[in-house]
Amino acid sequence: MSTPRAGLALASLALVAVGCEVVAPAPTGGQRYGLGTPLDERVLAGWNIDVAPDGTGLPPGRGNVAQGRTVYESKCVSCHGEKGVGGPANRLAGGSVKSRPQVKTVGSFWPHATTIYDYVNRAMPWDRPQSLAPDEVYAVTAYLLFINGIVPESATLDAVSLPRVRMPNRDGFNPVDPRPDTR
Amino acid sequence: MEEDQKKSRRRFLAGAGAAGVAATTGALVAPGVHAQPVGNQPPSVPEWTRVPGRGFLSPPYGQPSEFEKGVVRVLPSAPNPFPTATRTPLQSLHGSITPNGLFFERHHAGVPMIDPREHRLMLHGLVDRPLMFTLDDLVRLPSVNRVHFIECSGNSSSQWAGPGGATAQEVHGLASNAEWTGVPLAVLLEEAGARKQARWLLAEGADAAAMTRSVPMEKALDDALVVYAQNGEKLRPEQGYPIRLLLPGFEGNMSIKWLRRIKVAMEPFQTREETSTYTDLMPDGSARQFTFVMDAKSCILSPSGGQRITKRGFHEIYGIAWTGRGRIRRVEVSCDAGKTWQQARLQEPVLSMALTAFRLEWRWDGSPCVLQSRAIDETGYVQPTRKQLIEARGTASLYHYNGIQSWAIANSGEVTNVHA
């Protein structure tokens, strides 16, 4: 918190200007500089787009599989292929990480359905990210879950139902780094 | 006079080969380089000595010699509709600092052109005072300079399947090193009053991927920086201009570029980048998550793949080593495919989580051999062989490959990437 007296004395010798306040140059516990401006909710709202696995951050809105198919076929299929397979970009459907070859897709690998919403909303479509309305993101999320056999064709998703979707690989991740693992 | 200079340059370039020039290192040559004397060698007085050289500020931002035009970043040779990264020409560089124009590039949705006057950094979540910083605010805060490498966790990943890639650049070029200037993230967290119980934070970019990673609070408070300068000048656009996060020793993608937002929380956010990507798939179908640190690695750059040794006798073996777990303690070199090892000299100062150069005197007798290097870091960790890595992780984990690199030298002096 406090600036060492010795430091102040040295600094005052070195500084010609009178009245300069000298503070400790390195980050120290408790030191504050009073810079930055208070961030209000209105300003934050435009960028505060992350969605957590428990659904925190999901906006109002809803979308179903049929609507999602329409969005997918107009905005996603050229890169990701029919039903999420065979395009130049990442494969989205089918596969397994337990058989050979190990294939990572939304259905075989992603542990949280909420991450689909988060990622599509922030980064897709490739050429126009952050252009989809919440209803469209819910819908295309529902479609991706449907083509992976995770929700039925009748499914509608919203901020309540999406976090309840259990992904097949939910328990597939070990968050404890076991390295060093070579001997 | 200018016309004379141009002619002279053209003649010299013609002599150096139409392909432009790749680096020559003593008696090592890169393919396509056959420098022919064109009358400028002694006893002749060279043309460039007999006319004044070009003037000042041509150009105002200095460029390398035109004879070094071959020293550039490259994309992987395999065509990809969504290229992911360009690589640093490690074998053509000579110091531990990577020039800014050659620092490897990895981005997930292109390089944004950000007006620094309009850029903002938000800091919110579990804090007492949610704050927004301008670039001017950040530059006013206490800053530090630190030399650190950044390595993509996918660096060298071609080696899981086989000896993919010909040159050090192609194989290991997703690693670069710079002196960074920035504000400790701890200062910003103190400024906002981050709550003591907080365990994680989300870092988010302003690029078209709005790239996000969760960062442990322990790292944020330890040595994380919000940097605005690289090797003395403002960050390059492809490195995150105007600001990026820097997490020393951690896999590169976590050092979020074009940083726009930090949100403090209790739990990791489970972003796409830390679930479906940048996790390490094991043979049983499980995946390791949050494998942040880049383990010790080393690579001989001279001689290295794609070069040819043209003369027998003395050569200095030169290479680089690094570890995300602190300092490099020792580098050993083998000239017999790992049967025997000799200790290399380390270039001082050996900095923590920074590229460290090593050298070893060597005489090539003209017979085939395999050169290898292995790094030992200050934790005692020894860089493993490819076999050891595969025994531990299989071949599908993609990231964090740090196996010992083998370069085979043929009778002809050709150097190739092999698995020995």
TL;DR?
The complex is a heterodimer of chains A (183) and B (420). By secondary structure, chain A is mainly alpha-helical.
Q: What does this protein structure show overall?
A:
The complex is a heterodimer of chains A (183) and B (420). Chain A has helices at residues 5-14, 41-45, 65-75, 77-80, 106-109, 113-123, 134-147; strands spanning 37-38, 62-64, 156-158, 173-174. The longest helix of chain A is centred in the last third of the chain and has 14 residues, at 134-147. Chain A has a two-stranded antiparallel ribbon with strand order 2-3. By secondary structure, chain A is mostly helical. The radius of gyration of chain A is 25 Å and the shape is globular. The model of chain A is unreliable at 1-18 (pLDDT under 50). Chain B is built from 7 helices and 25 strands. Chain B has helices at 2-16, 47-50, 135-140, 168-172, 185-192, 217-222, 386-393; strands spanning 28-29, 85-86, 105-106, 121-125, 131-133, 144-151, 175-184, 200-205, 212-216, 225-230, 233-234, 244-246, 259-265, 280-281, 287-288, 297-302, 308-309, 313-322, 328-334, 342-343, 345-346, 356-364, 369-377, 406-409, 415-418. In chain B, the strands form 7 sheets. In chain B, strands 5-4-13-8-9 form a 5-stranded mixed beta sheet. The longest helix of chain B has 15 residues, at 2-16. The radius of gyration of chain B is 23 Å and the shape is globular. Chain B starts with a helix and ends with a strand. The interface between A and B is large, with 57 and 63 residues.
Annotate the secondary structure layout.
The complex is a heterodimer of chains A (183) and B (420).
Chain A: H1 5-14, E1 37-38, H2 41-45, E2 62-64, H3 65-75, H4 77-80, H5 106-109, H6 113-123, H7 134-147, E3 156-158, E4 173-174
Antiparallel strand pairs in A: 2-3
Helix pairs in contact in A: 3-7, 6-7
Chain B: H1 2-16, E1 28-29, H2 47-50, E2 85-86, E3 105-106, E4 121-125, E5 131-133, H3 135-140, E6 144-151, H4 168-172, E7 175-184, H5 185-192, E8 200-205, E9 212-216, H6 217-222, E10 225-230, E11 233-234, E12 244-246, E13 259-265, E14 280-281, E15 287-288, E16 297-302, E17 308-309, E18 313-322, E19 328-334, E20 342-343, E21 345-346, E22 356-364, E23 369-377, H7 386-393, E24 406-409, E25 415-418
Parallel strand pairs in B: 4-13
Antiparallel strand pairs in B: 1-17, 2-3, 4-5, 6-7, 7-10, 8-9, 8-13, 10-11, 10-12, 14-15, 16-18, 18-22, 19-20, 19-23, 21-22, 23-24, 24-25
